[in-house]
Amino acid sequence: MGPLVLGIMAREEAVHLLRRQEYLDEVSSLDLPSSYAAWYNVDVATLLNRTRIVGHEVDTETGQSLVFFDRSLMLCCPVSGKMHHYPKHLLHCFVDDNRCDFSDQDGVLFRAELFSISPTGEQLCWEACCRSEMEVPEVQTKVSRWLSWLNE
């Protein structure tokens, strides 16, 4: 391999290390019980040690997180101590825009769901929703990232 190829590979590796560290930093900033934080910092971090991360999302309320890879994603659930892996080809995105008539939608203006077609008990259901018009662009941006990743 020539120096140019090695330089490109080194930059790509640095980007993936940075993404991994950003993910672990975000998870460690959550207000989680120490056992959950240790699970993330030992078990999940070890699993991700040689894995190329494309992106991530963290649910600050539940402590769950999604880690996006090139051809799959992983749902990390600290409460159960489980990591669920989903191939990209089994994932779908659903968007429900209720801004025109949200009276029947329990006040939810905009809702998106990233979900899997998997066996019962192993299904992914990652939602983003908002009840305020001001939050809609944030959810739309999130859905845009999901769709971009799904269509790569």
Structure description:
This protein has about 150 residues and is α+β, with helices and mostly antiparallel strands. The chain has one domain. About 35% of the residues lie in helices and about 25% in strands. It is built from three helices and seven strands. It has helices at about 5-30, 35-45, 135-150, and strands at about 55-60, 65-70, 70-75, 80-85, 90-95, 110-115, 125-130. A four-stranded antiparallel beta sheet has the order 1-2-3-4, covered by helices on one side. A three-stranded antiparallel beta sheet has the order 5-6-7, covered by helices on one side. β2 (about 65-70) and β3 (about 70-75) form a beta hairpin. The radius of gyration is 17 Å and the shape is globular. The relative contact order is 0.10.
Keywords:
single chain; 152 residues; alpha+beta; three-stranded antiparallel β-sheet; 7 strands
Terminal Cα span: 27 Å
The assigned structural class equals alpha+beta
Q: How big is the Rg?
A: 17 Å
Helix and strand succession?
A: HHEEEEEEEH
Largest sheet: 4 strands, antiparallel
Strand content: 25-35%
